[in-house]
């Protein structure tokens, strides 16, 4: 198939929505509930041998991850997840115990996030397992963070370490033995990523935090989405991107290029956001005090130019040679 994920999204976009409804183009659709509150709605699918392999993840872990990745879409806009609907297409080779454990994982993660499971659907599949979750969240309308709100001069910040899930996926796909702690930790980052719900709710309290997105498709791709929707460009300092020590060890051991993971690795789900530079120190200190960890300033929003994202290594421009993560190209199996 020659169409990319982005191509299909653009084909689906509806331009005739009522003015108070936000449709395709952000992490969630936004529908006003009343004068002050809005519903946020999103859907994410997980397909066997595209997003997961049954050889490397348990049914319980898969249930947990399916809720997590959907909750991240709600968190990406500063909202709180509330309800989910689950649909599954199940092949005949899946036994009853697997289905029970999958449901147990879904229910447990719903409990962890105070999400209510309201319904869904099941059907048969000829060969592969398919899970689709529709999630609803809620937020004060004025606190919702959109991709289109970045301003020139904003600092670009991230809440976590890039590349962990992609490295874990490579370890799983290449069937490298899980002997070293750093390898196991990276694989766990792929199987059960951390979702920044509390952090996003905190950041949503500040009007000085402008645009926000979760990193599902890699730093380069998701920051590009902010730039496209905000009609701006970005300058990124590679030396400012936080590097996880386990990722660094694995890259050194396997002679892998660290920047490929940092810039193009998908499914980490940390938050990418822009912040008014005058309020960076204040908000970063409050964030550190509340969560006992910091977020990282990695660059700046600049006036739109030919290249949406420019990378610099010690003030020397770096040309990113890597393709972005795409679900139609990046397979687990």
UniProtKB/TrEMBL annotation:
Gene responsible for this protein:
thiL
State what this protein does.
Catalyzes the ATP-dependent phosphorylation of thiamine-monophosphate (TMP) to form thiamine-pyrophosphate (TPP), the active form of vitamin B1.
Q: Name one Pfam family in it.
A: AIRS
Q: Which residues form the PurM-like C-terminal domain?
A: 151-306
Which Enzyme Commission numbers does its entry carry? 2.7.4.16
Q: Where does ATP bind?
A: 120-121, 147, 216
UniProt keyword annotation of Magnesium present:
yes
Q: Give the residues the record marks as binding Mg(2+) 3.
A: 27, 73, 214
| Family recorded in the similarity comment | Belongs to the thiamine-monophosphate kinase family.
User: Annotated pathway, please?
Assistant: Cofactor biosynthesis; thiamine diphosphate biosynthesis; thiamine diphosphate from thiamine phosphate: step 1/1
What's the protein called, per UniProt?
Thiamine-monophosphate kinase
Q: Which GO terms describe its molecular function?
A: ATP binding; magnesium ion binding; thiamine-phosphate kinase activity
Q: What does the entry give for GO biological process?
A: thiamine biosynthetic process; thiamine diphosphate biosynthetic process
Species whose genome carries this gene: Candidatus Aquarickettsia rohweri
| PANTHER family to which the protein is assigned, alphabetical | THIAMINE-MONOPHOSPHATE KINASE
Keyword presence, Metal-binding: yes
